[in-house]
Amino acid sequence: MNLDQSQSSNLNISTSTSGKSSLNRRKFIYSIAASSAALYLSGCEKNPNTPLEVRNIIPPRLDTAYLGQEILCYRPLRKGSPNMSFQIIGDQIIGHNYGHGGSGWTLAPGCSKYVIGLVEGQKVKVIDKNAPVTVIGGGILGLFTAYELINRGYTKVTIVAAAYDNLTSHNAGGLIAPVSMSNDPQLQPLIDQIGIDAYKFYEQISKGQQADFKKGAVIVPTYFENREDSGLEPYVGKVMQPAKDVMLDFGNGTQRRMVSYDDGIFVDTAIMMKSLRDYLAPKVTFVTQKLDRLSEITTPLVFNCTGLGAFSLNNDAEVAPVQGHLIMLKDQVPANLQYMLLVYFNKAITTAGQEVKRSLYVFPKQLLNTPVNDIGVLGGTFIENATPNTPNLEEFKIMVDNAKKFYGI
What is the pLDDT confidence band of residue 183, given thresholds at 50, 70 and 90? Predict the structure, then answer.
């Protein structure tokens, strides 16, 4: 591509991989500043003589009769960092917004504002908000980018995508936390701020204060084994309250010591995807088309939100699929699933010889047009570079077995 090299060195903040594991669990959070770490430790240490708050949780029904659809999804991970940048090629400005791994929903509202802000802030090309704009990608990044463009006064927005239904964005669990992504530590403060901005957006929805969306996000207690695993500590004191040390009692003799963020946010991804489509339908043009090259789009302004498609469209070799397994639950008691839980297990090797990072997550997710008692999703796995040719189907059973062990079933 004929990228103006004088622009690329300053404008592309997402260059090469940091050389660290692409599923690094953000251990660097606590080394950003020694003073911050000390403050965290002093503020969260608990008197060992103080009894933990006990919270009674009824485990989900996990017998075969209560297990519904098994879903394979592929998260678009970009090694090193998501690509949140722009480039100028001839008369075109192309903004890039892809590669967020399992944090697409967590970051989408903030990332869209950030990338559009980069494009509008450049001094080389004049932006005409009445000129045609093309957004490539029908997932959450594409829809939020179009939403932000409309809010900023762009009048001729077209979304081009190969498909709009049953995407990874629909199947995502819905936990708002920066997980399953790859970040250069130097970029982490920016990612944290983008996540905080997105949290504020979803919080407005949960409180009925967002002008365009009245449902799709709720505040629920969110449990992790420790604060580090959550990725949420940078949010504390800015938009979230400190986590609490609690004991979960499952009523069967099994207890688990956890930390709880009582202002965690769950996004019902299927509802939000429909709400975004409904909002945008009268304001933008939707085109169903599979692109082979970015050069097929000739509008002066383009936003590339293609996720895994950026591997070929943008010749980005750092983009890789991260396979995930999840199971929808059915015939549950909705009142028993009004929380989120995420626990990490050790790495292992699948029967296909691929490294898998196993976890257990339980969220109050529902698919559209399903009975009220068909609620809950059980996950999950992180298998980098797995494809439909290596589905690793044995992971579904392993996932259920691990869930039963955790809950003491």
Answer: low
Q: Tell me: the pLDDT tens digits for 335-352?
A: 999 999 999 999 999 999
* Predicted confidence band of residue 35 (pLDDT cuts 50, 70, 90): very low
- Pair 228, 140: CB distance under 8 Å: no
Give the residue, 41 or 98, on which the prediction is more confident: 98
3-class SS letters over the chain: CCECHHHHHHHCCCCCCCCCCCCCCCHHHHHCCHHHHHHHHHHHCCCCCCCCEEEECCCCCCCHHHEEEEEEEEEEEECCCCEEEEEEECCEEEEEEECEHHHHHHHHHHHHHHHHHHHHHCCCCCCCCCCCEEEECCCHHHHHHHHHHHHCCCCCEEEEECCCCCCHHHHCCCECCCCCCCCCHHHHHHHHHHHHHHHHHHHHHHCCCCCCCCCCEEEEEEEECCHHHHCCHHHECCCECCCEEEEEECCCCCEEEEEEEEEEEEECHHHHHHHHHHHHCCCCEEEECCCCCHHHCCCCEEEECCHHHHHHHCCCCCEEEEEEEEEEECCCCHHHHCCEEEEEEEEEECCCCCEEEEEEEEECCCCCCCCCCCCCEEEEEEEECCCCCCCCCHHHHHHHHHHHHHHCC
* Dihedral sign computed on CA atoms, order 395, 397, 400, 404: negative
Q: Token digits for 199?
A: 């949290």
| Residue pLDDT, tens place only, 201-240 | 999 999 999 999 999 999 999 999 999 999 999 999 999 9
Question: Which pLDDT score is estimated for 2?
Answer: 32
Give me 220's structure tokens: 């629920």
Domains of the chain: 53-77+223-262+321-407 (no CATH), 79-216+268-309 (3.40.50.720)
Does the pLDDT of residue 5 top 90, yes or no?
no
d(CA 260, CA 246): 7
Rounded Cα gap, residues 403 and 169, in angstroms? 24
